[in-house]
Amino acid sequence: MNTELKITAEQVMEARHSVRKYDPNGKIPQGELNEILRLAASAPSAWNLQHWRFLVVTDPAIKEKLLPIAYNQQQVVDAYATIIILGDLEAYKSARPVYDEALAKGYVTEQVRENMIAQIEGAYNNNPEIARDEAIRNSSYAAMQLMLAAKAKGYDTCPMGGYNRDALIKELNIPSRYLPTLMLTLGKASVQAYSTSRFGLDQLVIQNSF
Predict the structure, then answer these.
(1) In whole angstroms, how far apart are CA 1 and each of 6, 20, 24, 141?
(2) Is residue 185 a contact partner of residue 76, using CB atoms and an 8 Å limit?
(3) Where would I find the beta strands (DSSP E) of 7-118?
(4) pLDDT the model gives residue 36
(5) Is the pLDDT of residue 139 over 60?
(6) Is the pLDDT of residue 44 over 90?
(7) End-to-end CA distance of the chain, in Å?
(8) For residue 174, which phi and psi values (nearest 5 degrees)?
């Protein structure tokens, strides 16, 4: 009998907080880690190009090498995994595989396939800024979804912008095609996140126009 307690999406969103202190002995079974990553990868993306890649670091020796790169934030070592979210700067190269498969499965017609590929390749060729903008924007969708998926399964995360990008690229041999957009720790909290205050909607929402 399945006694797993199901929680709503709303409860997951409200329960998720950034945790910076992890139990270094806390483990995540590979099956659960894979499921978290699978759910993260179901995020939306422009043209369905799926601009993200997940560089998952669980090797203790490699995590130790990340410590100075992350300005000695101990969480990158103590968390079960430190995940580097990568944005694909050459996502247009995924257009043909994506739409070939969509055609094969009957999701699109041949004409739609040709139109979409032409649109994608044209956009990337004609706008030099689009590659970086789309890599950052779309990989961010997956990063947020990963954090929510982790919380739904009882794990904690922390998105990190504090790291030396150039040193990270060199240490982990990240190809030039991929841009590190976020470092994210994942594991079991040893100390719960501290409470934060949030702006009210009266400060955040602009109705229709400024």
Answers:
(1) 14, 35, 32, 35
(2) yes
(3) 21-22, 52-57, 81-88
(4) 98
(5) yes
(6) yes
(7) 55
(8) -75, 125
Q: Give pTM, 2 decimals.
A: 0.93
Amino acid at 140: S
> For residue 40, which phi and psi values (nearest 5 degrees)?
-60, -40
Q: Which residue is listed with tokens 């202190």?
A: 21
- The answer to whether 134 and 120 have CB atoms below 8 angstroms apart is no
| Residue 174, token pair as written in the block | 């990240």
**CA dihedral (144, 57, 53, 36) positive or negative:** negative
Residue 162 reports pLDDT greater than 80 = yes
What's the whole-number mean pLDDT along residues 37-61?
Answer: 98
Distance CA 164, CA 87 (A): 16
Q: What is the mean pLDDT of the chain?
A: 95
Residue 185: which of 59, 99, 79 has the closest Cα? Answer: 79
How many residues appear in the chain? Answer: 210
Q: Find the mean pLDDT for residues 60-69.
A: 98
- The topology (CATH level 3) of 21-204 is NADH Oxidase (3.40.109)
